[in-house]
Each structure stands twice: as C-alpha cells, then as structure tokens.
Amino acid sequence: RTYDEVFITNQFGVNIGQSNVTSDYYQADETWWAETKENGKPGVIVEHDESAGSNSIVIHVPIYHTDSGEFIGIMKAVLPLSSLVRDNIISKGLFDSMVIELVSDKKELLYSTKKHTFFSNVSRTHTFLDTDLPSNTITSNSFGPKQQYVAYARSVGHGSYQSQGWVLVTRYEYEDIFKPLQRFTYILAGLSLRSE
C-alpha cells in the first residue's frame, strides 16, 4: 500500500469518503483544512509521527466543480516517505553502498535509506547543495574515508504546483560503480586466455 490514509471532505469539512476510519469526522476546524480552502492551492508538508515512528508527506488538494469552478471539498493524502523512495527494492540492486536521501530546502534530512535522525541538519556533509544547479553529479569525501559518487536533482514543481525545494540525493562508493566493469574485464581476460 502506497498511502497511510486518504480521505475527501465536502465544502463544509465533513468526511464523505475515506480509506480508513479517521480520528475526527469534521475537518473544517483543522488548520490544514482552513488554510487549503482559503489559499485555494495544493499544500504539501512533511510530518514525523512519533507513535508510528514514521515520516510522511501530507498532501492537501482543494477540489472544485468542473463546470462552475465552485469549491466543493478537499482531499487529504498521507504517504509514508519510505513508499515513495521504495528503498527496500532500489537499494538491493547492483550497488551495495547505495544511499538514497531526501533533503529539504533548509538542508534537513527528511528521509534516508541509512539509519538517520529525522530533520537532522546536513549542511556540513552536503555542501554540494550550495549551488543553484537543478541537478548535478560530483565526487565527494565528506561522507567518510571512501570517495563517493553523488548525484542529485532538485524538485522544480509542475503547473500550479510549486516546488517544495526538496532535493533527491543518491550516493555510491566510487569503487562500487566500477565493480561491474571490473568483472566484465576479468571475464574478457579469461575468454582471451582460452582462445589462445
């Protein structure tokens, strides 16, 4: 399941559809609901749920009638960050040292496939984010004794959705990147010895 919770309210803030039972039937008295109705734009925030021990992205989207443009409700979706990155699938791939991170515009760590502290400041290790480049690849020694290859991409938004300024970072130990090429070289060397 990709989401923890999805529900829709009507224009009065009353739940009219939900993926699971919510703790509150009436949402119009909640700050997120009032702000989303007032500004008329989708909102995205990151939250840490202490009781669940998980980090989530919470999305609020106002809903308007297609013909009249009249406000008719709000949809709220709560997505665990781990489901968005899918670390249990991606990091089990070719590179053992692969680390995937999501960093906020304030250089706070929102998510990592390595053990991490939510909202910890990464400005000392992630100095490569000081540039205005939307994406880049670099090599860095700031993560430990081994040189790492780092690739990152900034969110830029789309249409009426404004970017949150988040950056997706992937890191690999440099020697890990060349392992497949080294294996291939050994295979070719072995084959060339056989053919002589």
Notes on the structure:
By secondary structure, the chain is of the alpha+beta class. The chain has helices spanning 31-39, 81-85, 87-90, 174-194; strands at 5-10, 15-18, 43-49, 54-64, 71-80, 99-103, 109-112, 135-140, 148-154, 167-173. The termini are far apart. The mean pLDDT is 80.
What structural keywords apply?
196 residues, 4 helices, five-stranded antiparallel beta sheet, 34% strand, alpha+beta, single chain, elongated
Largest sheet: 5 strands, antiparallel
The level of helicity is 10-25%
Protein structure class:
alpha+beta
Strand order of the largest sheet: 2-1-5-4-3
Q: Give the averaged pLDDT, no decimals.
A: 80
Order of helices and strands: EEHEEEHHEEEEEH
Q: Number of helical segments?
A: 4
Q: Span between N and C termini?
A: 56 Å
Unreliable stretches: none
From the alpha-carbon coordinates, what is the Rg to the nearest angstrom?
22 Å
Shape label: elongated
Hey, roughly how much beta strand do the residues contain?
A: 25-35%
